[in-house]
């Protein structure tokens, strides 16, 4: 069931074991197939200009520009939530270094936007900072949580290569509002790869496990596939201990697998998959649904890094 993994584990593997410079916007590294790609409206509802209340405060804050966005982003990303997460992770925290690193990484995207190779949407700044604060508060997130939370930051600075377009790095890919853009590892042996968009959807929503637009079922759900099309509907996952079919092990939900019978003995039941680093021969053994080089991949990754924390 390799196609199912493409929509879940491979994306997590592509994120790496920690958040890198691209998370700050750095340069490193409608309806489609029955899936409705939602929109995110960054506009602010204001009072009518005809008869504003006498005591209405006037927002005199200067607009966000390419020359000011990085300092504002650094002020939002670095602070109490980052300090708490970094301290909890044992890395320590240095606020000036955090600011310097965010400014440097963001500056790469500013340069790209000025050169015309990246899109810039200043209205997404507030939502991006809010997303970062949620990630820092969680401090350790899995794939679903990251894809659900981070899209606003890919609207602040986004690539220009459309869904399905040839790409070499994540930063090149455009993300539809509410989705996470990714440039997967090259397809062997052709070496070709194209931009994909991922989104997290809820119960009874259409889901897809293949193609350039993939809808991942939220935690506690699974994609009940219809035939071999890679399309289905999100349904409630089986509970740990429930009987299951090994040929449809993903029904147990992300983090769980179907084990039992030969060679394990007893009935097949949903159980927690093997942890990161455990020996494996197939993805259906691992909690991450990823088995590479005989080892299970990680189900989650830390938000605290030396770039963010500036300590250690």
Task: Kindly describe this structure.
It is a single chain. The protein starts with a helix and ends with a helix. The protein has helices at 2-6, 9-15, 69-77, 80-88, 95-115, 125-138, 143-149, 151-156, 306-309, and strands at residues 31-32, 35-36, 119-120, 140-142, 157-158, 180-182, 196-201, 206-208, 213-217, 221-225, 231-236, 256-259, 269-272, 291-292, 295-296, 300-302. It has one domain (2-21, 68-309). 26% of the residues lie in helices and 17% in strands. It is α+β, with helices and mostly antiparallel strands. It has a three-stranded mixed β-sheet. A three-stranded antiparallel β-sheet has the order 8-11-10, with no helix packed on it. The protein has a two-stranded antiparallel ribbon with strand order 1-2. The protein is globular, with a radius of gyration of 21 Å.
Report the total helices: 9
The portion of residues assigned to helices is 25-40%
Low-confidence parts lasting 5 or more residues at pLDDT below 50?
A: 1-23, 28-54
Number of DSSP E strands: 16
Structural class: alpha+beta
* Global Rg: 21 Å
The succession of helices and strands, N to C, reads HHEEHHHEHEHHEEEEEEEEEEEEH
Give the termini separation: 42 Å
Q: In which order are the strands of the major sheet placed?
A: 6-7-9
The overall average pLDDT, rounded, is: 81
Share in β-strands: 15-25%
How does the major sheet shape up? 3 strands, mixed
Write down the domain tally: 1
User: What global shape is seen?
Assistant: globular
């Amino acid at each position: 069931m390799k196609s199912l993994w493409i929509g879940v584990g491979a994306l997590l593997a592509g994120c790496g074991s920690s958040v890198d410079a691209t998370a700050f916007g750095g340069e490193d590294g409608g309806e489609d197939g029955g899936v409705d790609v939602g929109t995110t409206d960054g506009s602010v509802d204001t009072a009518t200009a005809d008869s504003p209340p006498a005591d209405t405060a006037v927002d005199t804050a200067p607009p966000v520009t390419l020359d000011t966005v990085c300092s504002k982003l650094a002020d939002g990303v670095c602070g109490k939530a980052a300090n708490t997460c970094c301290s909890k992770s044992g890395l320590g925290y240095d606020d000036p270094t955090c600011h310097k690193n965010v400014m440097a990484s963001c500056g790469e995207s500013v340069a790209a936007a000025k050169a015309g190779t990246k899109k810039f949407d200043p209205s997404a700044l507030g939502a991006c900072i809010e997303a970062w604060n949620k990630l820092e508060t969680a401090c350790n997130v899995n794939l679903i949580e990251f894809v659900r939370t981070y899209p606003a930051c890919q609207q602040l600075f986004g690539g220009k290569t459309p869904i399905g377009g040839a790409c070499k790095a994540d930063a090149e890919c455009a993300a539809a509002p509410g989705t996470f853009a990714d440039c997967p590892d090259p397809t062997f042996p052709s070496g070709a790869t194209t931009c994909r968009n991922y989104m997290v959807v809820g119960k009874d929503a259409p889901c897809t496990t293949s193609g350039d637009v993939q809808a991942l079922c939220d935690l506690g759900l699974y994609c009940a596939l219809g035939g071999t099309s890679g399309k289905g509907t999100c349904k409630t996952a089986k509970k740990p201990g429930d009987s299951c079919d090994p040929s449809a092990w993903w029904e147990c939900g992300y983090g769980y697998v179907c084990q039992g019978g030969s060679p394990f003995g007893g009935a097949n039941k949903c159980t927690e998959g093997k942890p990161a680093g455990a020996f494996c021969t197939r993805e259906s053994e691992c909690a991450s649904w990823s088995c590479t080089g005989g080892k299970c991949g990680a189900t989650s990754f830390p938000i605290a890094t030396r770039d963010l924390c500036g300590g250690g």
